[in-house]
TrEMBL record:
Native species: Nesterenkonia sandarakina
Name of the protein described by the UniProt record: Uncharacterized protein
Top-level taxon of the source organism: Bacteria
TM stretches of this protein: 40-61, 81-102, 109-134, 162-183, 190-211, 231-250
Keywords: Membrane, Transmembrane, Transmembrane helix
Length: 257
């Protein structure tokens, strides 16, 4: 016997049925791009601006040297990573109260932010790879000035590996920036500084113990044995840990404006 529901009833229209909270993840993802300049415009300006400055300095050095001073490598690529880490912290500070006002769960907010940061990091990795190819094609913009075609990034895994590692490092920086902003909302300002100083002290102890036991050559050997792919894998493991930590912290964070 078949049962036909009246189309005007709430049961037939699906009214009152329970929706999965994950159905709002796409909306939480788009929330991070509500202000396009935050995640796209500003990072692009920093990316090309820092690159242009580095190339200009390369030509200047070449002119002062009066010939061929050899290849020069800069850290201009880091500028975008630091900018995105700051923008991730800014996003956590400004979109978290907005997300709570829209009745997003904290889990959905963290997941949406993670996916948005992953998309931005993938874009950065793609731009990084294109920049390497452009620097190779132009011999460092005719000044042997390299900001992306860095040997320690490309020598073991080529351009794809370098792009993957760049994207992974960018995602890690963004999740760490997100963490500190959320932690600020979770604990008092005094406790925040106690945690910062505690981490600095812990890092100092690790450095001192490593130096005392003469472990630095082993650390160097381990780093030298890593390819861009394997190092990206370690970084992505760190990202998963920080993401879980972010969710643990944000569960009791106060969404004040």
């Amino acid at each position: 016997m078949s049962i036909t529901l009246d189309p005007t009833t709430p049961e037939a229209q699906g009214v009152g049925t329970r929706r999965s909270s994950f159905a709002r993840v796409p909306a939480a993802f788009r929330l991070q791009f509500t202000v396009p300049s935050a995640m796209i415009g500003v990072p692009l300006v920093v990316f090309f601006g820092a690159w242009a400055v580095a190339v200009g300095i390369g030509h200047w050095v070449r002119y002062l040297a009066g010939g061929d001073p050899g290849p020069g490598y800069t850290g201009a690529a880091q500028a975008t990573v630091w900018a995105l880490a700051f923008m991730a912290a800014y996003s956590a500070s400004h979109t978290f109260p907005f997300a709570m006002a829209l009745s997003y769960s904290r889990r959905v907010f963290v997941l949406g932010a993670f996916l948005a940061f992953a998309a931005v990091s993938a874009g950065f990795g793609a731009l990084f790879s294109i920049a390497i190819l452009l620097e190779r094609a132009t011999n460092g913009f005719w000044a042997e000035s390299y900001s992306f075609d860095l040997p320690f990034m490309t020598q073991n895994a080529g351009v794809p590996g370098a792009g993957l590692l760049a994207g992974a490092l960018c995602l890690a920086a963004m999740m760490v920036g997100f963490f500190w902003s959320i932690l600020y909302r979770r604990v008092s300002l005094l406790l925040l500084w106690v945690i910062i100083l505690g981490l600095v002290a812990l890092l100092a102890v690790v450095v001192m113990v490593t130096t005392q036991n003469e472990w630095w050559p082993h650390v160097g050997d381990w780093l030298a044995a890593q390819s861009a792919y394997s190092f990206a894998g370690w970084v992505l493991l760190l990202v998963l840990g920080v993401t879980a930590l972010n969710y643990g912290v944000i569960r009791r964070a106060v969404p004040t404006v």
